[in-house]
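Example is below:
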Amino acid sequence: MKQTLETKRLIFRPFMPDDFAAVQSWAGNPANVRYMAWGPNTEEQTRGFLAQTKPGKDFAVTLKESDAVIGSCGIYPNSANDTGEIGWILHIDYWRRGYGTELGGELIRYGFEDIKLRRITAPCAAVNYGSYRVMERNGMRREALHRKAFWARVDKEWIDEAVYAILAEEYCNQTRRSKPTENKSLFLQEAEYVDFSDENIQAKVTEVLFSYDQPLLGG
């Protein structure tokens, strides 16, 4: 298993003792861990977490541009059936910037391409819109809704839990479809500079539009 992963803006690396202050800044914040199955942490609990993290499974999430530790994530394979569960948390100051979608996508890629899993799952509080939208943006689908199955530690109440999943073949199909989508985007970016009154250009556009198995816009 790899100890370091990389995306466009992020680096995932093993935890270090010096990460304590950064981890405690979100792990001890009730607003940050409202829908987590653990926390808010005491300093002792966070030190215990850092002591038991496993490289290749648990990652500190850092910004490439500054090396700042902004969150953590993990993937936990079950070798008995080639499945794995993923999870993550970001410091509240870094929400709504696309980092969750970026790190979730990399965990899924790592699970299927490097660890060779056949199925990946992720649970979340059903009301946690930010978390389940990360899963949906990365092609995961809701498989189950467990009523009153999740104990919300901060709000001290039982709430519904959703379970999302994606299969290796679904991931492969999505990956294959992404390349034509990128080409479509480039085509659209350049379209404003094209003289569409030219009949030759019109014919070429028609050829391009019908060369894809999906519509150019939407779908």
Observations:
- Residues 199 and 205 are 10 Å apart (CA to CA).
